Each structure stands twice: as structure tokens, then as C-alpha cells.
Amino acid sequence: MSSKKRILFIATEISPFLELTEFSEILNSLAIKSNENDFEVRCIMPRYGVINERRHKLHEVVRLSGINVSVDNDDYPLQIKVSSLPNARLQVYFLDNDEFFKRKFIFRDENEEWFEDNGLRSVFFCKGALETVKKFGWPPDIIHCSGWMTALIPMYIKTAYKKEPVFSNCKVVYSIGGETFDETLEKDFIRQANIHAAIKPKDLEPYKKGDYESIIKGGAVNSDAIAFATENIDEKIVKELSKTRGKKILKFQGYDSDLTEYFELFNELVP
């Protein structure tokens, strides 16, 4: 049995598959360097319709597909595809569903109109990612979440998935990158996000407003560590979250960092 620490990256974007912000390249480097620094690494992200399956050599993982993800009393089929980071023996798993990710746009349509189901897409992705890890049977020591689409995962780990053996000993890092939005998630978002009886109103409270600031704060306060991954974060948010008790805080070290600070954080969380 491998003695390597296991780290799972769950991300909105990872270069070269999707590059919304500079953080996609940092994640690419962080995953590869983690792999080179004796971590066992896996990555999960959405299979947005803009990702070219032929160019990136995606193929379906039949043994993992076939999961139905139940959200808001509806079942949605989850298809899982896989590719590798270029120049690295490192697998990236893509979560796909025709209703949520087949469209050839990410969060806005061709007229730059915000998709009315972005909140539901986020719930599906977060729950789908955790169900995929259960099917892996691969207990991570660290889950590194990045992007607002992943913000429910730290809360789900503490509530709905608290008693799942695969997550029983993991620590969660939440990275706040450069991607933002000015809109508000749909009014049903909080109800949709309540995927399990173990989730109480107080657990959903940080996310209640449904705006960008509330969503990332929800992800941050439910994590074991917060990483500021860009200089373009509202100073008010940085100051507020930096005062959060019981959290390890990783300040932004610049885009030319060698990422040593992340490995120090990972090893501090899981000695």
C-alpha cells in the first residue's frame, strides 16, 4: 500500500483545458509539482462544452460512469471522462452531464446573459465530485478546492459526507482565485444545496445571499485553510477572512512563486 499523501484538486479551471484566469496555470503547476514531490494526485473539474474532447484526448471511464446524482428531488446522470495533463503522468477527471455542461458556453450565453441554473450546476458538480471520489474508493488526505463552483464542497465534507469513511480524515484547503461574478444565484439555490438531512440551516447561512462574496466566504469558513491565489481580491474580503479563527491562512506570494508555500501548508495540515 502506498505511503504517499493523497491530494485531490477539485477546480473550476485547470490549464490547458480551461483558462479563465491566471490561477488555471498555477493549478496546473501545483498539481504537477505535487506529483513530483511525492504526493499521489488526482484532479476533478467540470467537462464544459467549450473543452475540446478530441484535442485534449478525453475518453469516458465506463467503470465510473453510471452514477445518478440526486439534487432537488431530481436525478441527473453523471458521465465521467478522463485525460492527462500534458507532459505529466497525472489524470484529470471531467464530470459531464448533457443538461448542465453540454452547452458551448461556461457561465453566460452568447449574449453574455448569466445562466439561470448556475447555482444548480454548482450543486450538481460539488455533489458529483464527492460521489465520484466515493466510487474511486480513494481516500484523499487533502482536498484542494478552487473557484466559486467548488465552494459547497467544504461544507458538504463537514455535514452530508461527514460519516463517509473515504472523507473521514481529510483536510480541506479553499483557494480564492481571480474569477468573480456580479450576478446572484437563483432564489432556489439554498434549497437545492440542501442535499442531505445532516445539513442544517446554520450550515447554509453563509451562502444565503447567493452573491459571489457570500459563496466564497461559505467555502472559506468551512475549510481548514484559506489560500489567497491572486492579488485581485477585494481587500475587505481578505481582511475579514484572514481573521477567521482556527484557519491556516496562505497569503498570495505572486505569480512567479515556486509554490513552496503550498507544500508547507499541505505538510502542516497533514504531518
UniProtKB/TrEMBL annotation:
Domain named Starch synthase catalytic: which ranges? Answer: 6-240
| MF GO annotations | alpha-1,4-glucan glucosyltransferase (ADP-glucose donor) activity
Keywords, in A-Z order: Glycosyltransferase, Transferase
Q: What InterPro entries does this protein map onto?
A: Starch_synth_cat_dom
EC no.?
2.4.1.21
Q: Where is the signal peptide?
A: none
Reply yes or no: does the keyword Protein transport apply. Answer: no
In the UniProt record, does the keyword Protein biosynthesis occur? no
A Pfam family matched by this chain, by name?
Glyco_transf_5
Q: Which reaction does it catalyse?
A: [(1->4)-alpha-D-glucosyl](n) + ADP-alpha-D-glucose = [(1->4)-alpha-D-glucosyl](n+1) + ADP + H(+)
EC top class, as a word: transferase
Protein's name according to its UniProt entry:
starch synthase
State the organism of origin. Haoranjiania flava
